[in-house]
# Entry
Amino acid sequence: MNEFVLIILAYCIGSIPTAVWISKHFFNIDIRDYGSGNAGATNTFRVLGKKYGSIVMAVDIIKGVVGTSLWILVPQYLNITTESDQLHRTNFMIGLGMASVIGHIFPLWANFKGGKGVATLFGMALAIQPIVAVLCVAVFLLVLYLTRFVSLSSILAGVSFMVFILFVYNAHEPLYRIFAIIVALMVVLTHQKNISRILNGTESKVPIFKYRDRRKERKGR
# Structure
């Protein structure tokens, strides 16, 4: 199949507005009219709770995985024999993944107003470099457990992705290294408002680990 067609298909997959459809179907609201105004997992956790937030996050991750994995539809990438072929396949996977992320941020099916793309970025990383992706999940979960800020967890996971790719995994592909830097910058830039709210002490915490917090409150009395 033509590579350009697959990139368009990856964008369409990324454009599936999970949070918007769930909020409209189950709550008769548009998630973008509440909370931070974003159609992503973080705002869904904040507005609709952990059940629907988890569903949105899972589906948005799957969008990244599926979009990035469309390379398997190109026969020439199925039987890699040279380092050059490997490089071309990795570059194509990055192109597919970024198309999915752009689709999530500017969804065709939701008037081009979507989320910040973090979950879909993770799905993309999971398809390209699963070990690094799992390490980033560990960073995300640790920060989330300690702070209950999904935004801060996402920011540090995105920055750690860059650190793992550049310094730990030490990827040699130039486009892959550039992509890692772009991921970190994109995550930070799309969370500028969240960073300001964290610094001002006004950022909302997601409704998880409540029992842990209640135990701390009881111990502090």
About this structure: The chain has one domain: 3-220. The chain has a mean pLDDT of 89.
